[in-house]
Amino acid sequence: MLLARLHGLRHSDAWLFGTMLVSACLSLAASFVLSVDALRLAADPGTSLSCNINAVISCGTVATSWQAQLFGFPNAFLGLVAEPVVITIAVASLGRVRFPRWFMFAAQVVYTLGVIFAYWLFSQSMSAIGALCPWCLLVTVSTTLVFATLTHVNIRDGNLFLPSRAQAAAARFVDADLDAIAVAIWILVLILAVVTKYGAALFG
Questions:
Q1: Which keywords has UniProt assigned to this entry (predicted)?
Q2: Cα separation of 82 and 94, whole Å?
C-alpha cells in the first residue's frame, strides 16, 4: 500500500512539476551568482571570489577560462534566459495548464541541448581546466533533474513523437520508476568521479 502511494505520488503532476520548479529555481540562482561573478571579474580580473576555496574548488579559475565564455559572453547568461522558461512551464503546469504537444517537444529539444552543454562544461572542468566551481556543479545537477522530469512528463503524455513501439517501451520504463533509479545512479557516478579524481585535494 505504501509503495503504491509513493509510486502514485512520484508520477503525479505535483511531484514532477514541483521537482522541475525547485530544480530550475536552483539553477537560476546559481546562474545569477555566476553572472554577477563574471561581471566582477570583467571589472577587476584580480578580484577574489567567495568560492575560491583552494586549488581545486575555485570559481575564479573556471570563470576565467575560455570555456566559460564559449559564445563570447558568460555562459551563465544562458541560464538566466532558459531557466525562467522552465519555471513558467512548471508553475503553469502546477496550475493545470497544458501546453501544446509541439511546444513541449520543442522544450525537450532545447533543454536536451542545454544538458549536453552543461556536461561538456563539466567534462572541461574535470579534464582541461583542472578546477571545479560549486555553482557550476549545482547547475549540472539541477539541469539533470529538470531534464529528467521534463522527459518523464513528455514520455507520459506522448509529446516526443516517438514510433508506437518506442513510445510504449519508454512509457514502461518510466512507469517502472527506472528513470528515477537511472538518475540517482548517474548523480552518484558524478560524485564518485569528482572524488576519485581530486580526493583529499577537495578539502586541502
A1: Disulfide bond, Membrane, Oxidoreductase, Quinone, Redox-active center, Transmembrane, Transmembrane helix
A2: 19
Q: Enumerate the β-bridge partners of residue 132.
A: 57
Cα separation of the two ends of the chain: 48
Task: Tell me the DSSP string of the chain.
Answer: -HHHHHHHHHTSHHHHHHHHHHHHHHHHHHHHHHHHHHHHHHH-TTPPPTTB-SSSBBHHHHHTSGGGGTTSS-THHHHHHHHHHHHHHHHHHHTT----HHHHHHHHHHHHHHHHHHHHHHHHIIIII--B-HHHHHHHHHHHHHHHHHHHHHHHTT-S---HHHHHHHHHHHHTTHHHHHHHHHHHHHHHHHHHHHGGGGG-
Residues 6+ away with beta carbon under 8 Å from 50 = 59
**How remote is the C-alpha of 129 from its chain's centroid?**
20
> Residue 21 contacts by C-beta under 8 Å, 6 or more apart in sequence?
87, 90, 91, 94
Query: Distance between CA 38 and CA 172 in Å, rounded?
Result: 44
pLDDT digits (tens, 9 = 90+) for 141-194: 999 999 999 999 999 999 999 999 999 999 999 999 999 999 999 999 999 999
Give yes or no for a contact between 17 and 90, defined as CB atoms under 8 angstroms apart: yes
- Grid cell locating 183: 538518475
